[in-house]
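Run folding on both entries below.
>entry_1
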Amino acid sequence: MLRVLVVDEDVKRSSEVVHALMTAGYHVTSILESGTDLYAKVREVQPDVIIIDMESPDRDMLEHLHVISRNDPRAIVMFCQDDAKETISAAVKAGVSAYVVDGLQPHRIKPILQTAVARFEEFQELRGELAKAKNSLAERKLLERAKGILMRRRGYGEDEAYHALRKLAMNRNKRLIDVAESVIEAEELLG
């Protein structure tokens, strides 16, 4: 069961949204009338999805969403009246998974939430793969640098330098990248 945090200034409208969410099988963790303490509330109740219903997101709301997306990411669905390209772009950059123009209609909540959660999960997976690729590239650069040091200092060929690093890693029961970093640090010390 998805846990949902609702942000809506309009109390009557938010009660309709909460009813529609509960009817669709979701658990509403909290209802906020403004985004003022949004990040603190997200950390407190740990919702799976945040639903925001407002005329147009202001700079403060977008900043709150950016902080949430950076520090504690989750699916965010925003229902707004503002269909300006710049507003939509700013909302997506702030971490909004689904930006729906023309208001929140209770019968559309379930498919919109399902789509937003699926897109969010896919994005998180891509983000993880990108971080892994960047880390792998950074490690490869360090390994190449360490091999270069051994080639220059010891007169090794590229394969010899790699095997020397690998042998040292096995002998010391360390990861290859840790040994490469040690070689680079030693080179910087000895200059």
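>entry_2
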Amino acid sequence: MLENVRLSFQGIWSHKMRSFLTMLGIIIGIASIISIVSTIQGTNDQIRQNLIGAGNNAVEINLSQGQTNYEISEWNPVPDGIPVITESIRQELLNVDGVEDASLYNVRTYAEGIYYQNSTLQGAQVYGIDQHYFNTCGYIVRTGREFLDEDYEQYRKVVILDQTAASSLFQEENPLGKTIEIDSQPYVVVGVAQQKAGFEPVINSEEDYDTYIGDEDSGIVYMPSASWCIAYMYDEPQNVVIKAQTTDDMASAGSKCADILNGYITGDSDVRYRARDVLETLEQLQSSSEAMNNQLIWIASISLLVGGIGVMNIMLVSVTERISEIGLKKAIGAKKRSILGQFLTEAVVLTSMGGIIGVVAGIVLAQTVSRMSGTPVGINVTAIIISVVFSMLIGIIFGLLPSVKAANLNPIDALRHE
């Protein structure tokens, strides 16, 4: 076997230009597939990172009417049969497999009437949160303080802003200790919060902006859930956010928690709790991008077919050139199996070298395209291994016919060949 490999390299080196041109179809096909697969992998990784964010594994469980979130307001009253979530229910959620923490919150997605002196915060979100919210969602108060037990017990009118809200209302001014108005009620700013792990989704289009950013860019104001009734409604049912132990637990944990919450709903209302299935959204976005890219892979595979035909052609030429050599080997006792193995090995070595060069060229091509267009790239080791193995199979398949022809030559006719 090793002798066959040595002879294969010797033959390839003896006809360097011919061997390279023979490998060219394999190189182009493998390089195209590797670059496409790398782009697919990088795009999927970016989609996953954009959706899951900094890796806090938070799953929102919202009151929903059909597929749309149901936000309680002056125009959307509290539906019949939707209870306020108690601490005992929260503890029940914590007992669900895969749930690390859980938090209850109220929200106004488009809150009006938020002022500081002459500045207005338009279209911001206001959250009434419990003391578990920041830990569950992966936030930390970088400036000032978090909410204290006394803030909840004494119904203090205090708020924490995110960075966007703080910048919009106060520009360069320090917001701590300043008083803002929310629905004509004064609230003192006690802190500014941001995510523990810095993360900004990559936005390449308006569609990406709507998918990953949405309305959060207007800023968020957090107040203690105990103070929610001062600006808004008493006994308003909350939404829930849970922190899953791992990314893989997000879908199942969210679904189980939504089922528990829906078990406490009475009456005939069509409003139910629904978990935002981030992984389902991820799969939908990835599948839509992969559908087109898979077509490109099939198109690129055509060059592999062309490369395989080229291998078959050059191996037939090689057999013709070496008929006398084959006849001599058979005359001194070489078996059909030995001749077959020699030429088949040469075909496999030829296509394997093309596959390896194609892999390197594909990685370089993917990196070049990434730098020029900003497209993310993720090198897929499995695809590399499959590509090299596939190139070897091409050598076996398309080298089989010439190898069989060589093995079946009549030694007398071969020795007489000029």
